[in-house]
Amino acid sequence: MDQIKIGRFIAERRKNAGLTQLQLAEMLGITDRAISKWETGKAMPDSSIMLELCGILKITVNDLLSGEVVTMENYNRELETNLIEMVRQKEQADKRLLTIEIVMCVVCLLPLLAAVCLVNVISLEEWMETVIVLAGIIPLLIATPFALKIEQKAGYYVCKECGHKYVPKYGNVFWAMHMGRTRYMKCPACGKRSWQKKVISKE
């Protein structure tokens, strides 16, 4: 999707509707700075307000994502192109999230490793060693819920039994036994438990 083209299209439709950036922002319950970012191609409207925006501008979501009013003969082709592009962007975003998860876990493990090395190298009182090790564990404990949320949301899990791909609930990911990014979970489609691999694409 061409964000610059989409931004110009939003600006054009807003002006055609006789609205200022501030007026449009107030109708959507957001700031006029957000509208400005859309119109300059620096950001895209959030999916939660896309339908409302299209209603105000009297366009379809397909028009918005195409950056122009789509004619009926081109509608299916443009819709398909936009859907493929949205899937591609989600896959790229999921890959970035999974990379962030790895970096976050490594960074949070370093204080724990440093604490363990410190108590093994320097002779300290037992209570002091305990405090140092606990201090090293804290960053890991703080990062774990965020890492699990990424594990849940980014990509899909594939059932080994039926091949169904799905996004599990946070609780299922939290309590599941795992080896790396493979988790032992119950498939919502076939109801069987198996070791399910993480994949990025649903294809």
Describe this structure as you would to a colleague:
The chain is of the alpha+beta class. The chain folds into three domains: 3-70, 434 Repressor (Amino-terminal Domain) (Orthogonal Bundle), CATH 1.10.260; 89-154; 155-203, no CATH class. Helix content is 65%, strand content 10%. The protein is built from eight helices and five strands; from the N terminus they run αααααααββαβββ. It has helices at residues 3-16, 21-28, 32-39, 47-57, 61-66, 72-121, 126-153, 170-175, and strands at residues 156-158, 165-166, 177-179, 182-186, 193-199. Strands 2-1-5-4-3 form a five-stranded antiparallel sheet. Helix 2 (21-28) crosses helix 3 (32-39) and helix 6 packs antiparallel against helix 7. The longest helix has 50 residues, at 72-121. The two termini are 21 Å apart.
